[in-house]
Amino acid sequence: MKGHRMDWTIAALLAVAIVATVGAAGVPSWIRYLGQLSTSTALASVGVMILLRAGLLSFGQSLFYFVGGYAVALIARYGGVTDALALVMVAAIAAGLAAAIIGQLLAGYRGIFFSMLTLALSMVMFSVATKVRLFGGSDGLNIGLMSYLGYRPRGPDAQWASFVFCIWVWTALAIMTHAFLRSRFGALIPAVADNEIRIEYLGYSVRKVVWVAYGIAGMLAGAGGALAGLSARHVDPQFAYWTTAGDFIFVVLLSGQASVLSPALGAFFLEILRSYASALFPDQWQTAFGAMMLAIVLFLPAGLDRLIVLIWSAVRKIRALRPHTLERGRSS
Amino acid sequence: MKTKLRLWAASTAAMLVCLTSIHADPAVAEDKLKIGLVFFLSGPGAAYGSHARDGAKLIAEALNAAKVPAPYDKAGINGLRIEPVFVDEAGGAQKQLAEYRRLVESEKVDMVIGYNSSADCNAIAPVAEELQVLTDFFHCGNPQLFEDIVTAPEYSVRTAPTGTMDQVAAAKYLLEKMPAIKSVSGINQDYSWGQDSWTEFKAAMSALKPDIQYPAGLFTKLGTSDYGAEISALLSSPADALFSSFWGGDADAFALQASTRGLTEKSKFVLTMGTGIIDDLGEKTIVGSIFGARGPHGYFARKTPLADWFKAEYLKTYHRVPPFGAYAAAQGIFGIKAAYEKAAAGLAGKLKTEAVIAALKGLTFETASGFPITMANNNGHQAIQATAYGVYAGWDKAKNEAIVTDIKVYPAECVNPPNGVRAVDWIKSGFKGAKC
Amino acid sequence: MGTLSAIIVDAASFSAWLFLVAVGLTLIFGVLRLLNIAHGAFYSVGAYAAIYAIGASVALGWGTALQLAAALGAASVIGALIGLLVERCVLLRLYGHPEPLVLIATYALFLVLDDLTKMISGGRSLYAAQPRDNLGQIAIGGLQYPTYDIALIGVSLMVAAAAWYTLNRTRLGRCVTAVVFDSEISAAMGIHVGRIKTGTFIVGSVLGCIAGALTAPKIAVSPGIGVEVIVIAFAVVVVGGLGSIPGALLGAAIVGLARAVTAHLMPEVEVFAVYFAMVAVLAVRPHGLLAPVAARRI
Fold it and tell me: Considering only alpha carbons, which residue of chain C is nearest residue A102?
């Protein structure tokens, strides 16, 4: 993984984005919508993943998801802004700022106490949101149609455009996060989980590393919430609820922590799983969904990433038994 | 690494293929009408949704077998067999939007009837307009749906009256029962339904009797199980009456705890969703309390062949008196059926959605409660109906059913705002234009 | 004066309920180091078991004491069975895995168990108020309180005392404490660490079911009652200090008092009271008020 080599993660991200953009028109809008939801969940989950690499389990990323979603809804409603890109940027910055402030308090916490405090904060937000008239109470707020740098699609085009927009925002942020994680500062994040004292001896501040990681995770969750709000054209206090944060964690566990691309796969899988469970078992979808979750946790504790690696090594073994096929395969 | 990515791409592609293939529809038969039915089937909301599902299932099967009495004696809907697709409403608006799109595009439903939560209704209505699918928001009660969210509805309709009716009628009934009343307290669930109900009720009370006092307006979290502190607070400065829009498990728990502590003797209870408590608690219900049913359902139903048939059939199938959720689901289907058959004007087969909606506007149709519904407001997309309140007077052990007395019916135009007037403005104006 | 006494009684009664709900959770965390989200489902399973048991014993013409005994018995048996199954079939395979994974596993269990209770009960609202009604009322400070609710305060204190005594004054309790501090050394000393863990989990799930069973006569048991319980039980446990029984008692007292005070004096902020107490305590004492002391490992 040296600089002069092609970075496969970035290539793959771009490939996914291009395929999704080109193929979008041919896919029914409900799958596109699941794709949009996946990008928003994936962004928040990337944040969870970063923190998890630092050994911190945040049970409150839903707080920033909420901040992002409501920033979009409130600015669009009271500020009259309809440009999607501007809204997402403002939302991400708002959530990042919120995370930077809360992060000051949280940077000294570890383990379960970190999880619990983040959970408590998001639940406070949830109960405030159900009360406040400005936020539309538990009904939440609706968001109108967006424009994209001057392009104002209406009707079915609007959904297509918002899908493509979500995909590219996700791609851009995923690439930026990837670059950050590969920077020298980014490399300190897993070191927090390994050995905090060593970091201090190297001359860095553990507190600062955790604070920055938390801020970036918050910003990503904010962007995710903004995308979710734009996709659904509706935000409600459910954004801040603990089960939303639970989804992000589940996505990371489901997908594994190999790269910034992983959570997108996990998120899409989660949406499909939920969709299928409720289509096939309208009455018992919780059981079906829970059982699937349990099966994954028990049999694939390292995530879907691991499944792919397992399949790949199995394939390699089979190929190794037949060296000629491999040679022929390569030359053709 | 490279091959790993290729595998990823392959597995994602496989997933997509899987999706489209499993959900690929068999050839669409023209002799059936596929209806998406979205009710709460899990979580606290199932206290309603499961009844709605039971009611919808019963009506769909009976219509398909042409067993429903006049005016719905024609088989199915305009001769088309009803094919219900049930979906659980639990899980939040984000999930419901995904489910709605799936219903429309993958299940290819002809229309959707459902949604109890006002958050879900608000989120879905703009999408219904965009996808141009007839969607009947069968039981959410927020007037804002057509006042603020979708102000010029084309494809969204609501075959149930708004919650305004319940609060206005409750205030009128309470004043008729207790003309000398001086104070009312409230206890409601801390989310839109409870907050709006209390606001509207207070507005209606003040409009009718300006000097009335509200000593306490308590709100509790949805799903609270212990109301000890609230009951003590209400007992320590008791008001003449207590207003509550509690429903489901919360209503039952509160009723049980309030009656053992004697709150019911100090304050007259006004429960807008009270028949739900009778359905659940039976003879443990608080005697002497004022009850509503989100419409003239259940104990308030008028005797018509259709209403009697529905009650008897429901009792036979599910061994209980139909709760109001079942009535709401039934009237949702009946409304669509009446409009469909009016639009068809004797011709068989499928119709365009727009033709059905045009026929539904302003339509008056018969319901399972015996009180007709008129699609009078918001350009014919919003229903109004008469409603009723009564007093629970005790349990008839011989017949094993509740005794409800002093039933008073309020005509639709007495307790619903006139077309084009916002609910809150109408209440504050002192019910201008009401015909009682 | 009337308000003050009402606040105290309401706070005590609500705190008692909170403690019953939270004690199983904190015990399991203390020994197994896992946050058991399925605890909410245990609560609702216990409540349903109690409803059916009370219904059956009323039909048999049993008295109040027997009705309660039947409810507690049924809840305990079912709790023990589910606890054993869950620990042996699921958790055993996950010890040593990262915390989040175990957390998600218990969340999945919650979804499944919650749905199963719905399937068995048919999603109907059921009630069994007989034992609570039979015990009558007592007047305190001018207000009537059900004897049952007041008795629950005593039951809570007894559970707390029993748990404290078992953990601190018996051989078994010392073994459990040893496992909490260092399971490897404990194993070397001849303690069956696996059995202690299984046993603790079973006791924790029985306590969860008993909390549901004792609540059942106060409410109508209906689908979804477990969801709110998890969050509030977490709040109590976190305020008091995860894994500490006296901490759960203190946490319950604080949260209960916060709710009673706000319900009487500032009803508009009642909903925030619980979380606000949680944030306030955590901000000042990150490990909770009475967290067991543990050296930070580097």
Answer: C283
Whole-angstrom Cα distance, residue C253 to residue C18?
Answer: 8
- Please state the domain count of chain C: 1
* Pick from C144, C218, C263: CB nearest B253: C218
Fold classification of B32-162+302-385 is Rossmann fold (3.40.50)
CATH class of this structure's domain B164-293+386-428? alpha beta
What CATH number is associated with residue C239? 1.10.3470
pLDDT digits (tens, 9 = 90+) for C117-161: 888 887 778 888 899 999 999 988 888 899 999 999 999 999 999
* Architecture in CATH of A8-301: Orthogonal Bundle (1.10)
Identify the residue whose tokens are 């009455």: A283
Q: Do the domain assignments include residue C297?
A: no
The complex scores an ipTM of 0.89
Q: Which residue of A has its CA nearest to C116?
A: A287
Decide if B12 touches A, using CB distance below 8 A.
yes
Give the residue numbers spanning the domain of C162: 2-284
In the block, which residue shows the tokens 């039980």? C233
pLDDT in tens, chain C (298 residues): 578 889 999 999 999 999 999 999 999 998 888 889 999 999 999 999 999 999 999 999 999 999 999 999 999 999 999 999 999 999 988 888 887 888 889 999 999 998 888 888 877 788 888 999 999 999 888 888 999 999 999 999 999 999 999 998 999 999 998 888 888 888 998 899 999 999 999 999 999 999 999 999 999 888 888 888 888 898 898 888 888 899 999 999 999 999 999 988 888 888 778 888 888 888 888 778 887 655 443 3
Rounded alpha-carbon distances, angstroms, from residue B297 to B289, B302, B317, B322, B387: 17, 9, 18, 9, 8
Q: Is B225 on the interface with A (CB under 8 A)?
A: no
Contact (CB, 8 A) for A267 and B73: no
Distances (CA, A) of B367 to B41, B328, B389: 24, 9, 18
Residue C298 domain-assigned? Answer: no
Q: Please name the chains neighbouring A, where neighbouring means 3+ C-beta pairs under 8 angstroms.
A: B, C
Q: Which residue of A has its CA nearest to C112?
A: A287
Judged by CB atoms closer than 8 Å, whether chains meet at C125 and B47 is answered as yes
d(CA A305, CA B303): 64
